[in-house]
Write a structure and sequence with these properties.
Structural class: mainly alpha
Shape: flat
Order of helices and strands: HHH
Number of helices: 3
Strand content: under 5%
C-alpha cells in the first residue's frame, strides 16, 4: 500500500477517574425508573385482585404485589434519608446525628465523632 497511513485523529476524551456526581445521578435515575416499574406491577396486581376473574388471576395479582412492593418501600426510605440529609445540611446540623454544628471548628462532630459534612 503506497498511500498515506490511516490516522483516526484524537480519540474521545474519556476519563477513568471516578465521578461521584455522575454516579449519584445515575443511581437516582435508576431508582426512579425501578420505582415506577414496580408501582405499575403493584397497580396491575391490585387491579387483578379487585377484578377477581378467577383464582389464577388472583394468584398472579398477589405475585405482582409481592414482587413489586419492596422496591417502592426501599426508594421511599432512600428519599426520606436524602430529604433529612438535605434538611440537616441546610440548617447547620451533622448529617449523621443532627447535632448543631454551627460554629464548629474541628472536623469531627462532638456528638457522634464522624465527619459532619
Amino acid at each position: 500500500m503506497n498511500g498515506p497511513a490511516y490516522n483516526p485523529g484524537p480519540g474521545p476524551d474519556i476519563s477513568l477517574e471516578p465521578n461521584p456526581e455522575a454516579d449519584r445521578a445515575r443511581r437516582r435515575i435508576a431508582l426512579i425508573l425501578t420505582t415506577a416499574i414496580s408501582l405499575m406491577c403493584v397497580g396491575g396486581g391490585i387491579s387483578r385482585i379487585v377484578q377477581w376473574q378467577s383464582s389464577t388471576w388472583v394468584a398472579v395479582g398477589l405475585g405482582l404485589v409481592i414482587i413489586g412492593l419492596p422496591i417502592p418501600i426501599y426508594s421511599g426510605r432512600c428519599l426520606w434519608r436524602w430529604m433529612v440529609g438535605m434538611y440537616r445540611v441546610n440548617h447547620d446540623q451533622c448529617i449523621h446525628c443532627g447535632y448543631s454544628i454551627s460554629g464548629l471548628i474541628s472536623a469531627t462532630c462532638p456528638e457522634c465523632g464522624r465527619d459532619p459534612f
